[in-house]
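Per reviewer request, we include the raw input and output of the structure prediction for the construct analysed in the revised manuscript.
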Amino acid sequence: MKKVLLFLAIGLCAVQLSHAQSSEKLGGFGLRGGANFFNFGGSDVSENDYSNRVGFHVGGYTMLFMTDRLALEPGVYYSVKGTQNDDFADSRAILNYVDVPVLFRFYPTDGINIFAGPQISFLAGSKFEGDFFGNTISYDSDAIKETDIGLVLGLGYNLPKGFNVQASYDYGFTPIFKDSDADVYNRGFKLSAGYTF
């Protein structure tokens, strides 16, 4: 957890440094949050056994315009991912991360934007739960890797007065389990609303 907090602090310092050095190109600082719909993906995951688990994300970002139509957007978010297993116990994995995406946004019009970029995620906590005879059994797990690397793709729209909405997909590249050859990755959709100051 200390390592996660250190990376979070470094990320926030980098955002503030970019703000100070590029104020003439700054599009603004903003806050964003919304719903996650995540599942495990990969060749070792049976689509019949797992379904999307609903979580959330919340955090902040900085917009740095490189041209009138192209912007760089670093951000830091707390994000709850995982999966739901459709078994007798409704077992589920709850994976908490600090996501640090660096997105490139292209604006073909003043409102619509298309974005993509790399993301590194730092594990803040992980646990597995199941319901047995009316009771929820939960235990923390150290089986999940501490970092996850992926790609973010999405479509956004800028509303009046600084508000924005977007839909995105996180495509994890790093197998999530330690000491395992299992081909299992974090994959999921995010629906977000934000405000740029």
